[in-house]
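Hey, I'm writing a tutorial for new members on how sequence and structure tokens pair up, and I'd like a real worked example in the thread rather than a made-up one. If someone can provide the structure for the chain below, I'll link this post from the tutorial.
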Amino acid sequence: MIKKHEGLRLKPYRDTEGYLTIGYGHNLHEGITLEQAKLLLKSDLARAVADLKEIFRERWAQFPKEIQVALIDMMFNLGKGKFLGFKKMIKALEEGDYRRAAEEMRDSLWCRQVKGRCEELAQLVERGGEGGVRVASTNPAHPPVG
């Protein structure tokens, strides 16, 4: 009955009282719970991994885990559309030139905007190509976030 009366809206909207609402009348006025945030993160990470697998195809599984973690973080931050704008970085990754890929990451407006995040991810890409870094998780569905 609630689904029928509330209706489904997949994008945020203002209800009749002016509260930001989404889904089946879920009011965002008081925020979300930690569990809801974790579910959203899990869903967003799965989408990022799926997008990367689509872009890199069979090459994705061949990337060292450090590089996968860095790319998941970058995709999560940028979204697929903006990530695809990194054509030179993507080409360098496909060619296995991880140093050049890291340089392309650094040579971007995105890097200037996110500063430390970019440098940390670029270093992961560089060192991942050398096999010199271990990451906490090797499961792309649950990469470390932070």
